[in-house]
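Input record (one chain):
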Amino acid sequence: MRHIILGTAGHIDHGKTALVRALTGIDTDRLEEEKRRGISIDLGFAHLQLTPEIQCGFVDVPGHERFVKNMLAGVGGIDLALLVIAADESIKPQTREHFDICRLLGISLGIVVVTKADLVEPDLVELVKLETEEFVAGSFLEGAPVVAVSSVTGQGLEELRKEIARIATQVPLRDATRHFRLPVDRAFSMKGFGAVVTGTLLSGSVRVDQEVEVYPLGRRVRIRGVQVHGKPVDKAVAGQRTALNLGGIEHSGLARGMALAEPGRFRTTTLADCALDLLASARPLKNRAPVHFHSGAAGIEAEVRLIAGTTIEPGTRCYVRLILREPALLLPGDRFILRMFSPVVTIAGGVVLDSAPPRRTKASNERLRVLESASASERVKLMVREARHGLALNDLVARTGWMPPEAARAMREAAVFLEEQQWALDRDWFANAQERIKAALAAFHKLNPLAPGMMKEDLRSRELAGAPAFLLDALLKRVEGVVASGESIRLASHTVALKTDEEAALRKIESAFEQAGLAVPAAQEVLKSCGVDSVRARSLLQILLRDKRLIKVAEDLLFHPSALDGLRAMLTGRKGSRFSVPEFKDWAGISRKYAIPLLEYFDRERVTRREGDFRVIL
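The corresponding structure, as predicted from the sequence alone:
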């Protein structure tokens, strides 16, 4: 089944709603005020099974200039435009504005419908057709069918249906395999059901009981029911007008302009770098100009920041940065419309190139040219290079809307890709980081020749401050000539070579503890009398601890292994015995100052186990 969305466009009272009603049998004016005043105020929706293979959804938009913002909330998701021009009035101001909007949104297919053909002479209908063909020359509607109809007599309706069916086969199908995205164009409550939202499903699919997220609220909700064209279904797919009954939220918390998408998949933004087309009919646009920004169903106040220069001339194309007053869910490729504040008219449109530009990186025309037209791998290379410590795969997916496999493929082509962590690093940064690590280790060894290596955390804080914890480990695995031993890192070429006085001091320190037995001296006192300066003495002590020639039982309480082995043998000879601290003091001939730390050490070594005020020898 081919699903397409048709949208009307045209001046007020040119017969858009009557045309949709004549084609579908559905009156899209649902509001009491619309019926009373005889004009469309808000979006209206209808559907038609055009052929067994083609299902059409209609978005009927208001034509009054005061309600163009409502028109913009619905026109963003259409595949085929019906430009409606009344035969008795021809082209009017909102005809022009709606037509400009369709062009700026990149709509590529459409039909010109000359309505109210029954109210004028056939010659006048032909004249309007000629005026219309001249009006659309050079646009996506050049060469498109121009069909004269009457919604009252039925004239031309069958021909129009045939043209819609023919052109519908040319509409590119929306991809149901992509990420689920649905801009909300209506939010209301239904008695017995609760919160309901509607919108055109841009991509992906949605099922009953699926969990989705409401952006920008960050609320996760459950899909309680799905309807397509008023009928309950288990699943809706891209290209369908969809109504969703949501559980876990009140309708008062929902509004037009929000969006539904996969939970945690995307991030909203208030900053977007874009390509902008300023209409030839617009005034020059200055830097920092306030505008109304419309994308999807959202309408947000914004400010235009020019990438180069101070003014955009009418009829030109340039790159800009848009600063939004409120967060929105935007992805590269999303189209938008800009309208002035005063007078409130459409002036420009464009496409989002980057919805998460780095604030510290100055935007440039060259940067945005890459994002607009370069290959996927070149775009990824730019984004990875701009990231301080690389880019996560999930972040790239959130920023581009790509599926994870294609994002990973582009990362592998563009950068050093850490498969286990799903992380990409700029190749130049990666090479420089390796050299910095080796240089940092060389400097450390020069200053600390007796140290076996630099502590990993010290190396991380010095060379990779703020980076993910895994990054240093990933780098160390790929740096040649570097050896990691636990938390200590050294160059493979580094060896600890003691001088004569250092060897003597090392033996003296070890001997002092060995001779002391269980009545060990304070470490600082031993180091002071070892014969070398305090810095080298502390390094020698670390060597003894590393090689387990001394054992650290507690802070500033070191024992020679021979003393501990003797105690261990004494305890294991009493296996199964239950004893108190005073008993242990008597057995070992030591004071409480040593007894408690030693017992806690043997508890850790699983020689003893504490049970209240007693211990059991295991």
